Fold RNA helicase.
Amino acid sequence: MRTSWADTVASAEAENLAASDCAGVGSTARSTKSTYVPPHLRNRQQSSEPAALSYSATPLANDKFSYGGSSSGPRSGGSGQDYGRGGGGRGGGWNSRGGGWEREVNPFGNDDDGSAEQAFSEQENTGINFDAYEDILVEASGDNVPPPVETFAEIDLGKELNANIRRCKYVKPTPVQRHAIPISLARRDLMACAQTGSGKTAAFCFPIISGIMRGGYQQRPRGVQTVFPLSLILSPTRELSMQIHEEAKKFAYQTGVKVVVVYGGAPISQQLRELERGVDILVATPGRLVDLLERARVSLQMIRYLALDEADRMLDMGFEPQIRKIVEQTDMPPRGIRQTMLFSATFPKEIQRLAADFLSNYIFLAVGRVGSSTELIVQRVELVNESDKRSHLMDLLHAQRANGVHGKQALTLVFVETKKGADSLEHFLSTNGFPATSIHGDRSQQERELALRSFKSGNTPILVATDVAARGLDIPHVAHVINFDLPNDIDDYVHRIGRTGRAGKKGLATAFFNEGNMSLARPLADLMQESNQEVPNWLIRYASRAAYVGGRNRRSGGGRFSGRDFRREGTFNRGGVADYYGVNNYSVPSYMGGGYGSSVTSAWD
Ligand SMILES: Nc1ncnc2c1ncn2[C@@H]1O[C@H](COP(=O)(O)OP(=O)(O)OP(=O)(O)O)[C@@H](O)[C@H]1O
């Protein structure tokens, strides 16, 4: 029998609080002031430990070289070639930026107590429920798919990166990482689909950082003010770009690989200054990047790695022209020369078709069904009239408060349709005893960041949000996502509820459904069924009555979920795909992973 939703919140919170996350927007980083190091001291490490000096001719941000003491600990991770320049000592490394020498801020705060030297096998499991991922069905299609790995130690990512993985307390790779990292390290283009919260960020960051580290010294053109990053990571929202930047900085700590973020709504002058200090990996939102390209402050001529996070969103109507401009109408090397990686939890077929234009002989990887939601999230849907939504929300919040566990407060994310609706609901909640804040496109960037910080810290444990917060954000302790207004598109629903139940932890999602949401009845019922949720009878009745509505609600009408590589449909043949995959001439599937033998029928067959 199911427990009540309030109990579920309480237990999800209790479980989730047991774990401590490595990731997150605005994770606290101990700030360390830049320090000038006189030339005669530049080859001394800051640690009290004596350390061998190493000089490496790997490419540094815009051709600036740096020295770093290499740690003397045992080498781990594959064949263990030492690609890095990092200092393995405590509390920070040294980096050359803009001709001066700066101490690299330790993004792990002061927890760098030598644990990075621990063997992977000795690490504590930090509360991540890895078993939740073990049974997941994995399918990869394309030519010569590199086999997956089971452990990080099997992959030769480089010593410094391995040390950072340990600092993050990642004990073993998640399924998408097991499969995607070897594919990317083999320099293959990739379209990867894996459930929300399953570790896609690291899956594209690790190979990029490792590739730049092992790439050897690379002469970059010298523009007066132009910078030449080696890798570009694009994401649809400012907050997600900031989060990817924070994550990538952790992974790149002491590797000498410099990560910079640019996004709209923040002063461009500050971002330009940061760029001038050198950049290897540029994380960007499309609008701000186009601005910088037009000002000739960034050139994409040297790009070796292009990653699109939330790729289906990036190629959706809103963003596609900008993405095409960036990828096809600039000096970026063409597909086949650069390596391109697309990641998302959802990948509608029509977007897969568009995406194929950016890829060359790519591998399609699906971890779980495309667009499915994780079973870690308990989904509830309640029939609530429009006029009753506020009082119903209050009831939920009161019960949640009554059942709340002590300690850090469970965070609740409430999604609404409009910016006005977000403001008004925030006001309503705040004046009714529930401290709330809001995030949406009409708020200034400063307000957005403040709201997110206040939510994360638990000061305002309720965040009312539009879809600007639906994708990618990894906020620890979100125990409950409430769809006060349901979205029109089932994929948006998948991303929204994916703000809880991340990295193996449990979560709860409640949706208010009424006659205005009829077009979602069928895809919602299908999605819930597919992720083993209890579907209310009334929703099943609505779903069976629902007419085919077409559009992007791909589960509606047909009843069968099209979670697969569109090339396998054999109905579409154009552009880059036709070069490699004739209608009857594709090679699939190379293997099935996730504990399934080859005799097991694929979910897509
Ligand atoms: N191997 C690992 N072991 C433990 N935790 C991990 C591992 N890889 C990633 N994580 C953690 O899992 C959480 C979710 O990762 P991430 O944000 O990359 O998910 P995602 O798949 O990109 O989700 P979304 O689809 O919502 O964007 C993060 O807190 C991250 O630090």
Observations:
- The pocket of adenosine-5'-triphosphate is lined by residues 21-23, 128, 170, 173-174, 177, 194, 196-202, 345, 472, 474, 498, 502-503 (CB under 6 Å).
- The CA atoms of residues 140 and 365 lie 4 Å apart.
- DSSP finds 18 helices and 19 strands in the chain.
